[in-house]
C-alpha cells in the first residue's frame, strides 16, 4: 500500500494441484466452498501530480512503464510494470483503481 510495488506481483497465481490418494472420497462440487477474495482498500486521496515514463527493455522486445504519483498528502507512489502487447490504457487504469493504488 505504501511504497514501491510492481503491478505484476498482484497477478492471481494458481496453486499447484496435489495428487490425491485413491482411497479418499470425491467431494461434492455443490458443497465445495470457493475462496472469497480479500477486499482491497479503496484509495481516498487524489493524485495531484503524475509523471509517466515508458522505455524499451534492454532486449528491445518489451516496454516498461513507470508511474510516479504524488498524492494530495504529499505521499509519493512509484509503480512499474512490463507492458504486454494486449494491454491498453483503460484496462491499466481500471486495475490501478481496483487494487487501491489510485482514487477513482
Automatic annotation (TrEMBL):
<feature type="region of interest" description="Disordered">
    <location>
        <begin position="16"/>
        <end position="42"/>
    </location>
</feature>
<protein>
    <submittedName>
        <fullName>NRBP2 protein</fullName>
    </submittedName>
</protein>
Amino acid at each position: 500500500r505504501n511504497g514501491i510495488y510492481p503491478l505484476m506481483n498482484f497477478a492471481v497465481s494458481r496453486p499447484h494441484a496435489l495428487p490425491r490418494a485413491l482411497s479418499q472420497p470425491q467431494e461434492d462440487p455443490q458443497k465445495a466452498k470457493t475462496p472469497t477474495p480479500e477486499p482491497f482498500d479503496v484509495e481516498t486521496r487524489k493524485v495531484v501530480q503524475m509523471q509517466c515514463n515508458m522505455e524499451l527493455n534492454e532486449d528491445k522486445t518489451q516496454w516498461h512503464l513507470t508511474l510516479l504519483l504524488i498524492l494530495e498528502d504529499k505521499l509519493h507512489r512509484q509503480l512499474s510494470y512490463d507492458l504486454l502487447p494486449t494491454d491498453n490504457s483503460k484496462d491499466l487504469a481500471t486495475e490501478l483503481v481496483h487494487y487501491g493504488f489510485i482514487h477513482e
